[in-house]
Amino acid sequence: MSEVIVVTSGKGGVGKTTTSANVGTGLAEMGKSVVLIDADIGLRNLDVVMGLENRIVYNLVDVIEGNCRLKQALIKDKRHAGLYLMPAAQTRDKNCITPEQMIKLIDSLKEQFDYIILDCPAGIEQGFQNAIAGADHAIVVTTPEVSAIRDADRIIGLLEANEIKRIDLVINRLRHDLIRRGEMMTVDDVLDILGLPLLGVVPDDENVVIATNQGEPLVGKGSMAGQAFYNICKRLAGKEVPFMDFSKNVTLWARFSGLFKKSLQEEQA
Amino acid sequence: MSIFNIFRRKTSRQIAKDRLKILLISDRVNCSPEMMELIKNDIAEVISKYMKIDTSNMDIQISKAGTNSRNGKSPVLYANIPILDLRN
ipTM score here? Predict the structure, then answer.
């Protein structure tokens, strides 16, 4: 039985597409068969992050409208045998398909794949409704910022109202240096506010920018973010993986000055 | 910013957390300010039957329940009503 996962956030730019690409690639690396569906009709980007933008002929809307067969719209990944992408249409808008059509499309993909991952558009309108329609599991991506958390909270309410059975949280772009200085909310702060089970914590990592530039997901590669995404995949597959301790990556100087500040703070108190 | 200021001020982490907590209360409860005003007036009217209260400084809000709630998510109505005179 395949698992249908929607990656959503409410707010734009928090890392939905990056998370979708890396989770999909990571699961494929673990030997699973995966299809990534870009549900962001009109503003597609998953193809670019995956480096598959030059291979698009047909898209999701073509399949739904019957302009092509299902298989014709599935783009095989460059690196992983079991990984496919179904791109969104770029010249159409979100209102051109319905939740019922999405459910039908997802059902037709269930026989072939272990995981169906939907990259949800930002917002709470039709595009969101389409993306969550066929999902039984949601990954809510947020960053430790007021605006992203507020939107995530709204999305969680909507997911619950739509009876999505399982909702997990991924906290993206965590900066340990800021947390150390008390200038960023911690993982526990975010969990305290949103009250969701934690699926993963991804540190802010320049390698994500580099990987996106190159169109190659960084999951499983040497970087901190790559490792964090791979851990998310392992947890999705049911393995128990401890959360990474990012403080280990802090330079000696940061540690020293942190210690100095702490002792001064204690003196003040 | 002087070095001593760093320790005196509230960290932006705490500010963010406090702001979010208040923000999400009104986001989560689908309750319009007009309705809150009506509730406030009704409460004031009832309490005024028994004691003299300061209606201008009265404050009511809906906030997340304390630790005694069963699922931790059910909201509570919180009212702060300054009493001017306990005898009617």
Answer: 0.81
